[in-house]
Design a protein that fits this description.
This protein is of the alpha/beta class. Helices cover 43% and strands 18% of the residues. It is built from twelve helices and nine strands. The chain has helices spanning 14-23, 37-41, 44-47, 61-65, 67-76, 90-100, 113-123, 125-130, 142-154, 204-211, 214-236, 254-267, and strands at 2-8, 27-29, 50-54, 82-87, 133-136, 162-169, 180-183, 241-248, 273-277.
Length: 282
C-alpha cells in the first residue's frame, strides 16, 4: 500500500497538506485517533488504495507521546510510504493563531498558547524523528506548500530544499525564521558616501562601489564556500527550506548586495532559489 502519514505542529499547515494529497487522488482521513491506526491499516479496502492520514495534537497526550514508536513498528511491516512532518517557528505559529482566532488543541485554563506550542513540540519529537520530510512552513505560502507536497509525494527521490537568501538590518532586529546568519558589517559601507546614501545594493552605482572593494568579493566567496559544504548536509537531513540571512547595519546596501550576489550564484546550479530584502520590501 501507499500510506502517507501527515503530522506536525498545530498551525503549521497540515490541513493544506491533506487537501493537496486529496487533489492527488489520496483517500484522506483527518485526525485519525492514534490507537486506531493499526486496525485502520488492517482493513483490506484501505490497503488497496492510496491513503493519507493526519495525526496530531488532537490525540490524547499519552497516545501522542507513543506515536513515534508506533510509526516505527508499522514501518517494519512495510505499510508506510512516507511520513511528512510540518513545523514553523513559534512567532509565526502565534501570529497564525492570532489571525485565525482558532484554539490550540493543548491550551486550557492553566496553559498559555506559548506553553501549548512548547509542549506539542516535545510530544511530537518522536514523530519528527521518523519523518521522511520535515517541512518548515515559516516562509512558505499556501501555494508553495501545495507544490512542495506534490513534489515530495510524486518525486520523493529528487527532493531538494528551497534556498532563500534574505538581507536584513541588525538595527531593526534579526529575522525570526533565520537558519544561518552572516554578518557583513565589517565591509566598506556606501552609506558614508553622500551620493550613495539614498541608494541600495540593487543600484548600479552601489554595485560599482563594491566592485572596487576586494574584501566584498572575499566575503561572498567565503560564505559560498561554507554553503557549498553544508547545503548538501541540510538536504540529507530532509530539510525542505533553508533561510540564509545576510545582515548589515541598516539592511540597505551591503547585505542587499551580498544576498543578490549569492542568489545569482546559486540560481545557476539550483532550481528553487529566492532572494528577499526585508528593509526594501517594508
Amino acid at each position: 500500500m501507499s500510506l502517507i502519514v501527515v503530522s506536525g505542529l498545530s498551525g503549521a499547515g497540515k490541513s493544506v497538506a491533506m487537501h493537496a494529497l486529496e487533489d492527488l487522488g489520496f483517500y484522506c482521513v483527518d485526525n485519525l485517533p492514534d490507537g486506531l491506526l493499526d486496525a485502520f491499516l488492517d482493513d483490506p479496502a484501505v490497503r488497496a488504495r492510496r491513503t493519507a492520514v493526519s495525526i496530531d495534537a488532537r490525540n490524547a497526550g499519552a497516545d501522542l507521546a507513543d506515536l513515534g514508536r508506533r510509526i516505527a513498528r508499522i514501518r517494519e511491516r512495510g505499510l508506510i510510504g512516507q511520513v511528512l512532518f510540518l513545523e514553523a517557528v513559534d512567532d509565526v505559529l502565534l501570529k497564525r493563531f492570532s489571525e485565525t482566532r482558532r484554539k490550540h488543541p493543548l491550551t486550557d485554563a492553566d496553559r498559555t498558547l506559548e506553553e501549548a506550542i512548547a509542549e506539542e513540540r516535545d510530544l511530537l519529537m518522536g514523530v519528527r524523528e521518523q519523518a521522511d520530510s520535515v517541512i518548515d512552513t515559516t516562509l512558505i505560502n499556501l501555494h508553495q506548500l501545495r507544490d512542495l507536497i506534490r513534489q515530495r509525494v510524486e518525486h520523493p527521490s529528487s527532493q531538494s530544499l528551497t534556498l532563500l537568501f534574505e538581507s536584513f538590518g541588525f538595527k531593526h532586529g534579526m529575522p525570526a525564521g533565520a537558519d544561518l546568519v552572516f554578518d557583513v558589517r565589517c565591509l566598506p559601507n556606501p552609506y558614508w558616501e553622500p551620493t550613495l546614501r539614498g541608494l541600495t545594493g540593487q543600484d548600479a552605482a552601489v554595485q560599482r562601489f563594491f566592485a572596487g572593494e576586494p574584501m566584498v568579493e572575499e566575503m561572498a566567496e567565503s560564505i559560498a564556500t561554507f554553503l557549498d559544504v553544508w547545503i548538501p548536509r541540510f538536504e540529507a537531513d530532509n530539510r525542505a527550506y533553508l533561510t540564509v540571512c545576510i545582515g548589515c547595519t541598516g539592511g540597505q546596501h551591503r547585505s542587499v548586495f551580498i544576498a543578490e550576489q549569492l542568489g545569482r550564484r546559486y540560481s545557476e546550479k539550483r532550481k528553487d532559489v529566492t532572494v528577499r530584502h526585508r528593509r526594501l520590501s517594508s
